[in-house]
Amino acid sequence: MQKATLTPYFEADGDAFKPNAIAQGGWGPTLGGHVIGGLLARAIDAQRTDPDLLPVRLTVDMLRRVATEPVQAHAEVLRIGSRMQATDGTLTQNGEVVARASALYLRRGEQPGEAAWSTPIEMPPLPTEPAEFDDAMPMFVKPYGRDPGVGEGMVWQHDGPRYGWVREVRELVAGEPNSPFVQAALAVDVTASLTGFSTTGLGFINADYTLTLCRLPEGPYIGMAALSHYSEAGLATGTASLFDTRGPIGTGVTTAIANPHFGKRSFVRSSE
């Protein structure tokens, strides 16, 4: 079914990107972490020197709250080797660096024949899409966790396994289809919510996140399965496995700090 064109996160304006209202995150009148990472991934990938190089890691540091105002994204290649490329990116606003990222690219090659062990994970089925996506929602997220009808709050707000299928439904920059790398960079920020919920709400706000990939995602959906949440003294780290419909593609890792003021807030606006 043909779906309506939804409002993009940003409009290009010279060397700046002007955010639309949908780019605002869930923690106040600031840009969401997913679009910050998306812009940095876009700028970094524009510096890729060889199509056989695969982005295997992207780490995004959110250095300060980013106002819903124009930003600039820049990237610089730090080193190129025969099998790798290292690239850094920065996001600036009003002349100040507000976020940064580092990325590692490795060259594809022959796959060893031996199979390595990994924790088996079975993802829930793909969700049924609505006839039209909601233009008020930043992305389409189908969460799985608490059984329907048991308890209150978001389905991730329970003491048990959590999964989700994430589909980006809009362009990061108007007029540009999202690349698979940008698609993954937009989705991986959900790791913080997926792993950070407790039975009473989301008590942590993430300071960074890392995306690792063994291959780029195929198709519009990225699946996520929470693996761990460890926290003490108001500091937390969480990890998730990432999938597409063909199988595993990588991991998401986040570090976070306690933010009790938002402890009962459901950060992810989703389709349940």
TrEMBL record:
Pfam (any one): 4HBT_3
Residue ranges occupied by any Acyl-CoA thioesterase-like N-terminal HotDog domain in the UniProt entry: 32-105
Highest taxon in the source lineage: Bacteria
InterPro entries named among the record's database cross-references: Acyl-CoA_hotdog, HotDog_dom_sf, TesB_ACOT8-like_N
Protein name (Swiss-Prot/TrEMBL): Thioesterase family protein
Source organism per UniProt: [Mycobacterium] wendilense
Organism phylogeny: Bacteria, Bacillati, Actinomycetota, Actinomycetes, Mycobacteriales
